[in-house]
Amino acid sequence: MSSSGPLAQWLAGLASNIHHSDPAMVGIAVVVLAGGCAFCSWCTWRNVSHIRLIEDTPTAKIRSAPQGYVELEGTGKLMDGPPIIAKLTGLPCVWFRYKIEQQVKTNYKGHTQTRWEVVEKGESAETFWLQDDTGRVVIDPEGADVTSRHKDSWRSSSMLGGPLHRPAGVSSFFTSNIGSGSYRLTEERINSGERLYALGLLKSVSSYTSQPTVDEDVRALLKDWKQDQPTLLQRFDLNKDGKIDEIEWRLARAQARRETMKNRQEQVIHSADGLSVLGPTRDGSRPYILSAFTQAELTKRYKLWAVLYAGACFLLGLAAVWVFNAKFV
Q1: Beta carbons of 103 and 180 less than 8 angstroms apart
Q2: Hey, which of 60, 173, 208, 232 would disulfide with 65, CB 3.0 to 4.6 Å?
Q3: Would the pLDDT of 195 be above 70?
Q4: Would the pTM count as exceeding 0.70?
């Protein structure tokens, strides 16, 4: 394309307008563009780091999986008890996320502008099973980066969902964008029986419960012993004077601590054969990922997003430099 082409002329005109614009406004524009560049750079790094973690972390079997940061694959299953019901469609599932948006119209300089405003959103926090051919673990979805295969979006005249309002197949896309209704409903689901990939922190159930300290357990045990004075005197009144003196009370405290430690050791041994929970790591470098896609599919998605964010980072950075040069150089 020649330097006198339409694009070159448009850029020259834009550069002239920027050069004669308010320096403060141009400075703000440069900062915004640079901020967008930095954000896209961070998103690129995040997706690349996820790819490396998925590819470098070996997949463990549930029965032999060690406590800590692990990668598991299996099938999502509902637990016994009330089923998990999706908020908008009313369909049973093991996990769902939903968003309700309302169409808002405003008048600006004689022109009607339309935008979608989020009025309600949320996702399920109920636990469910991840099961393979060797065992099962509890999945706590709270705090996870979840990707599902099933996503429905449709327009409605009310905030109520339900299966009768939900379009099927390809019509879902058209209904959510060009259909009628002032509300747009979006729902994602992971169904029971779907294959799942999980990367997170595996802990025993006892580690997730709030346990008192050893000293608190000792004090509670001593309190129980005090309420049964005859037994307390029989065990620790060594000089048989009908009361517990300071030396005998020290012996009682030492015995209470020994019994507390023994009970805790038995609980640890018992919980070793019990259930474990997969949950968040609270470590930004170790994400908690749940996905209905396979490792290969998930890696491909992260690679695509990494490329898109890298491209956006380059374009925004280039635009920031060009705008700065057009005004200040």
Answers
A1: no
A2: 60
A3: yes
A4: no
Q: pLDDT tens-digit profile of 16-34?
A: 888 888 888 888 999 999 9
For residue range 64-83, list pLDDT tens digits in order. Answer: 888 899 999 999 999 888 88
Q: Helix/strand/coil (H, E, C) string of the chain?
A: CCCCCHHHHHHHHHHHHHHCCCHHHHHHHHHHHHHHHHHHHHHHHHHHHHHHHHHHCCECCCCCCCCEEEEEEEEEECCCCCCEECCCCCCEECEEEEEEEEEEEEEECCEEEEEEEEEEEEECCCCEEEECCCCEEEECCCCCEEECCEEEEEEECCCCCCHHHCCCCCHHHHHHHHCCCCEEEEEEEECCCCEEEEEEEEEEHHHHCCCCCHHHHHHHHHHHHHHCHHHHHHHHCCCCCCCCCHHHHHHHHHHHHHHHHHHHHHHHHHHHCCCEEEECCCCCCCCCEEECCCHHHHHHHHHHHHHHHHHHHHHHHHHHHHHHHHHHC
Beta bridge partners of 183: 102, 156
Q: Which residues on adjacent β-strands are paired with residue 128?
A: 139
How many other CB atoms are found less than 10 A from the CB of residue 150?
16
Q: List phi, psi (to 5°) of 78.
A: -75, 145
Q: Are 54 and 66 in contact, with CB atoms under 8 Å apart?
A: no
CB 82 within 8 A of CB 171: no
